[in-house]
Amino acid sequence: MVMSNKYEVVIGLEVHVQLLTESKLFCGCSAEYGAEPNAHTCPVCLGLPGTLPVLNKEALRYALLAARAADCKINKFCKFDRKNYFYPDLPKGYQISQYDLPLGYDGRITIESETGTKDIGLTRIHLEEDAGKLVHQGTVGDSDHSYVDYNRGGVPLIEIVSEPDIRSPQEARAYLKALKQLILYLGISDCNMEEGSLRCDANVSLRPVGEEKFGTKTEVKNMNSFRAVERALAYEVERQREVLNSQGEVVQETRTWDEGKQKTLSMRGKEEAEDYRYFPEPDLMPLQISQDYIDEIDASLPELPLEKKERLQQEYDLPAYDAGVLTQDKEVAKLFEEAVGQDQDPKEVSNWLMGEYLRLIKEENIAPGTSELTGEKLASLLELIDSGTISSNIAKEVFAETFNSGKDPEEIVEERGLKQISDEDELGEIIAEIVADNPGAVEDIRNGKDKAIGFLVGQVMKKTKGKANPQLANQLIREEIAEE
């Protein structure tokens, strides 16, 4: 990102996370994604007159889990409010949200920044209902018709608002990754940005270096991936810098990110809180949250990513890098501990998971934990390597088959005849033939060019389809040449 050092970047993020409850926030309709349009609706979530909302207790528990995992304080007395605005996907003409008394406040998310770890403050975490979704027919900007799907209307959300502590687009991406990781560890959302279960808006401004007063901010919307967030913020920072350098004024407005044009575009003037005419929701009683319930939430928190990373380093003597990669996803960390629990070397297990496992996960485009590999089967594979039954190269083939089919590695080796050839007589015959067929390489070895040994070992591995013991092959080649 090109940027003058005259200005400091100030970014705050507002993240909406759909909670993974079975039903909506204030009614019994299914919150499942992907149904036929308007199949999951009822008089309550359609905002019909005379209907009354009833709070989903599980959504409240999930929101409290998120707040406490992010080290938030809890408002023991809080309430819901009506946020009034008119839009086709909001049938009531208002959204039930929280305004001055949010569920959680004053929290933090720790990120890995360019200079080490850094805490990004959280202003608040609150509960609210989602709106419906507009579906436009035809190309954007040239639609013949627009339709409204209310299935998403009323699905429970938490809104997580950061302090303006983020100082670069790269830090913004790191914050989102850390936040998503935390939410996934809690199991309260699938955080699927493509399906809209994790959405991010950003407030961006510049101010002269050393200045305490914030500059005029713009809000950027419509960013549907971490990469899009980073690119949109980089563009907006550069745009504002150019405006300020030309003695212009940044206008407070809402802008949208156009992925095709790779630029932000003006949408509308930025709304302020008073534009929404917040007032207490009259159909819902205020919430009174007891300390006993907060203590119960705290006790139910799982081991969180940073805690797990530190423990893996200490307990298994892993490098910080390995522990960081393994704990990016809780399913990978689970596989690691299952395999190590079978008396396997932690570093060896780590290498296989960071290498072959994550490679196959990426190639197959599946989520960690959804393959057929288990920690026990990985341990079985490593035992076959350690005992000399199979070579490391053959082990990669076996690993891939176990990953896809779930077959036990030992069974695969037996069925496919993949046992390593470690019999000196059998291997000696093959080596004698290869030495005789490659007099040039033999001469190079006699002249001190040891690289030729690698060539001959490669020929042995090719001849045996990777089943020869490479260390034994190396030894027998040297002996064969010495005897000539």
Molecular structure report:
This protein has helices at 57-69, 169-186, 226-245, 291-300, 305-316, 320-326, 330-340, 346-364, 375-386, 392-405, 409-416, 424-437, 439-446, 451-463, 470-483; strands at residues 7-18, 73-74, 77-78, 81-84, 94-97, 104-113, 116-129, 133-137, 145-149, 156-162, 198-208, 218-223, 253-258, 263-269, 279-280, 287-288. The chain has 15 helices and 16 strands. The strands form four sheets. The protein has a nine-stranded mixed β-sheet with strand order 2-6-7-10-1-11-12-13-14. The chain has a three-stranded antiparallel β-sheet with strand order 5-4-15, with no helix packed on it. Helix 14 (451-463) packs across helix 15. It is of the alpha+beta class and 484 residues long. Helix 3 links the parallel strand 12 (218-223) and strand 13 (253-258). The protein has three domains: 7-295, no CATH class; 303-416, no CATH class; 424-483, Arc Repressor Mutant, subunit A (Orthogonal Bundle), CATH 1.10.10. The chain is elongated. The longest helix has 20 residues, at 226-245.
Keywords:
single chain; 484 residues; alpha+beta; Arc Repressor Mutant, subunit A; 3 domains; nine-stranded mixed β-sheet; 16 strands
Taking the alpha carbons of the first and last residues, their distance comes to 64 Å
Main sheet attributes: strand count, strand direction, barrel closure: 9 strands, mixed
Low-confidence stretches: none
The outline comes out as elongated
| Structure annotation, total helices | 15
Tell me roughly what share of residues is in helical segments: 25-40%
Q: Based on the structure, what is the oligomeric state of the protein chains?
A: single chain
* Strand line-up across the major sheet: 2-6-7-10-1-11-12-13-14
Q: How many separate domains make up the residues?
A: 3
Binned strand content: 15-25%
Mean of residue pLDDT?
90
